[in-house]
Amino acid sequence: MSYYFVWPALVLATALSACTGIRGSGSDAALVGAEDRRGLFTLVPKSEKPLARAKLHFKNEDFGLAEKFFRRSVEENPNLTEGWMGLAASYDRLRRFDLAARAYKVVLKQTGYTAALHNNLGYHYYLQGNMAKARKHFNSALAKDPGNPYVLNNLEMLESPSA
Known about the structure:
Largest sheet: 2 strands, antiparallel
Number of strands: 2
Strand content: 5-15%
Helix content: 55-70%
Order of helices and strands: HEEHHHHHHH
Structural class: mainly alpha
Number of helices: 8
């Protein structure tokens, strides 16, 4: 009876691999399945770069796996600012603020204070309950990128009574 449920997934995987041009029987052609938070099954090539896998896991709120793949991406390329930013954000979500702060320092050295860095630092301090520092960074982000919807959303969140 369990074969009835597995068979459609195999047909779907075969059809999708044919559409995406994934060929061969090696480990690079294998597909890794990940169920996202909406209950949808997402197929990711096993050979996918760690950064892409990290982004998928972060999007699906699998922060432990996101941290693992962001860390792997910066180990492969220490100059990958996007990897460091994602690693820091993953650490924030895992409430490892000490490690997040170290990763944000790397981003700061690489890029200086950008709107994205200020926004992430604001959220970093928000999660720790330091609303004054969070507001300072959100306002700095807004000054660098007026109208940024992420920053505006975070400022609105900060002003809500539950904050």
